Amino acid sequence: xxxxxxxxxxxxxxxxxxxxxxxxxxxxxxxxxxxxxxxxxxxxxxxxxxxxxxxxxxxxxxxxxxxxxxxxxxxxxxxxxxxxxxxxxxxxxxxxxxxxxxxxxxxxxxxxxxxxxxxxxxxxxxxxxxxxxxxxxxxxxxxxxxxxxxxxxxxxxxxxxxxxxxx
Length: 167
Description:
5 helices, 34% helix, two-stranded antiparallel sheet
């Protein structure tokens, strides 16, 4: 799976770097968000690489990525417009933003349709392994990604869901 040449030249090195670090430190993870949506057929430009990891099992990884952290880690409580309640950090690597979110602190997201907070379920024992941008990664299973994006119901999620369904 590829994006534009410009997108690939920005995303691929960052994805290779973070996946290599995750694997070397033996940290369980799942890619979510736009990257996972692209793996299932979404075609929009990728803004950031969203990854869930258990921070309580990732001390050595977090130490390695520290020089690239531009924000956090911070516990963030959003609202309907920015619908997350979680601890996360932002990394900048080669012009590509990467966000690592902590699953050991019970992350939640706001379900706009039901108008309530939902537990973010990440089953590290049930990832889907795909090659995207030339890198083999573990991503969120399609049915969970669809559930998640349908509940978030932001404009970008609606576009992703339409493009995934068209595939």
